[in-house]
Please model this.
Amino acid sequence: MKTKSDFEREKELAAKEAVKLIGDNMIVGLGTGSTAYYAIMEIGQRVKEGLKIKAVPTSEETEKLAASLNIELIDIKTVDAIDLTIDGADEFTSELMMIKGGGGALFREKIVLSLTKKKIIISDSSKKVEMLGKFKVPVEVVPFAANYVLKQIASKGGSSELRMKDGREFLTDQENYIIDADFGLIDDPKTLSTLLNGIEGVLAHGLFIELADQIIMGDGDTAIVFEK
Ligand code: 5RP
Model:
């Protein structure tokens, strides 16, 4: 059985493989989480060695890390397109469907990936599933609408709870709440995505469909690539 440190090595392996795809003068989207961390560290190393890029972070945490590594940052409001983004996932299938948002950065991650020409997801081998849904679907909501959205999810057959941290509501970088929604195993992610998008007060949800071009998964000493 693989240990936590095996999975850490797989994350790092996948991250290093993905960073090889970055070239000079690219605008690069930087994901959030413990897998994206390895990619950002590797990019920092390449910047130190002379790589010239501009980066768009998907969270305040990533922004701080990138700045500490002297990676030049660019405001997303000034960007028409992003050349390549590297981000992690909480679950994915070989059809490149994903659940993201375990770290709470799903809203910015979705916008950054949507603006990106080459969308690269990196992962260890624990995240690959046959069907999405063991991991609850994070849903970012305007705080005012949180109770309403909880009720709407229940009326559509899901169970859900408000994400808490240190005894109070977890706040996203946009100061919104996250609801973690459980619909069991999801046989039709597209329909569920449409349903969640249709609830007033929902800003974004963690079902990412058609938002990956390639998923690079570390598996032992090998990087396995899933693509369209
Ligand atoms: C954050 C995300 C992350 O990509 C996802 O949670 C995976 O994180 P980790 O690499 O730490 O397992 O979507 O919002």
About this structure: The chain has two domains: 4-129+209-221, 137-205. The longest strand covers residues 116-123. The chain is about 30% helix and 30% strand.
